[in-house]
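In this supplementary section we document a worked example of the pipeline. Step one takes a protein sequence of length 500 as its only input; no multiple sequence alignment statistics are reported here. Step two produces a three-dimensional model, which step three serialises into structure tokens for compact storage. The input and output of this example are shown verbatim.
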Amino acid sequence: MTTERLTPAPPPGELIDSPRFPVAARRELGNAQQRRNLHHATRTIRDKRAQAVGEMDNWQELRAAGGAIKSRVLRHLPEYLEQLEASLTRNGATVHWAGDAAEANRIVIDLVQQTGSTEVVKVKSMATQEIELNEALEESGIAAWETDLAELIVQLGHDRPSHILVPAIHRNRSEVRDIFLAEMGNYGTPPPPGLDDDPVNLADAARGHLREKFLRARVAVSGANFAIADTGSLVVVESEGNGRMCLTLPETLISVVGIEKVLPSFEDLEVFMQLLPRSSTAERMNPYTSIWSGASEGDGPQNVHVVLIDNGRTKALADPQGRTALRCIRCSACLNICPVFEKVGGHAYGSVYPGPIGAILNPQIRGTDSAVDRSLPFASTLCGACTEVCPVMIPIADLLVHMRSKVVDAKKAENTGVHLPHAEPAMMKAGAWVMADHRRLEAAQLATKTSGKVLGHFTDHIGALPWPLSKWANARDTANPPTQTFRDWWKANRAQEEQK
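The serialised model returned by step three reads:
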């Protein structure tokens, strides 16, 4: 066994420098195996979710309640955070405040180094992925071992997560077996010889690999699904039991929590414990729910630290419309229903938050300076399916439009005094002029109908279009214009009925 660290790929900091979504999406579309994996996984998850949600007669009321609670939190966030800090401190925990990723990483590294440990075990945490904590720990000589099965697969594969809930959704079980056989022995207990791709055997191999890490670890790092202000309690929900091991065995527990995760009272948790499992894993309740409230003598970690991070959240909070994205409870329902995500996967989004929620959340907390963040609000068909399934009623489709306008405004501000020609405004003006008079519209319809008949003799679709339409058409099969207008159809099918 070697003791080398696990260096992820791509290197730290590269996410923000990822190519624009259209470029990255085209790259991911070229991976046929990944497309098959995503198609199977997302359809399976969303079908099960629909069944679990269908059992609830009051599902819409629960959604409304969850949205209302999270909105109340955002309106009074400073007060609830102060209450949370006071409650955690009263319970024996130490609270740290971090303005950005660099500050949060420094705090965690200092806390680990104070223990003298050179490794930590980790519960799956989007917040630690967001701030690239694993990479920062590694640079300081500290190994961070992921213990969630999917995260372990991603880490051993020197890969990046591609889904909020199922980080290895882009891998099938044969690929997982190959990763375990090639990498697992380099970082601990190797898999059994002749390991096959049966899910039970893969899970057994992971269990044996992780057990030694659980038993020797002195420090654990976690996130939190919820932080309860009035009781000073943190909540983690998970399905494998690895979280329970991390949260109870080590001497020191460091929890990295986004400031938007706070809930006002313990009673509020009841709503989310019904919304989250059904929306994420399609379960009536999650298998493991761990709740801890500071340190307790003789029971669990004796040194409990909570790092509350901003990292752009207050910037999002300052936008009265955009702040609703901070309601997100990281269920991934919007990813599983999104036709775009199903085709390209999470790596195309250049962030640990992919899919529709990532397309609105990333530009808000990271800004719109990078090419990838400017492109994300346009990574959607605006079909609205994400809005329909969101358990806390985030108007994702509306926010996508809102963020598009902010990107356009930012570009205009940069081009002040420079009047560059742009095809889209000219096309919109031309369309408005045609539609403003029925005679012009009828003439345009006659022209398209005629061109459709002519083209129909040669091909069933137009194919490539000239500039400036080429940018729109280079990823689409442009059909021939219809040979019958709606007016023609109406005269042929409805006019006679109206006369009767």
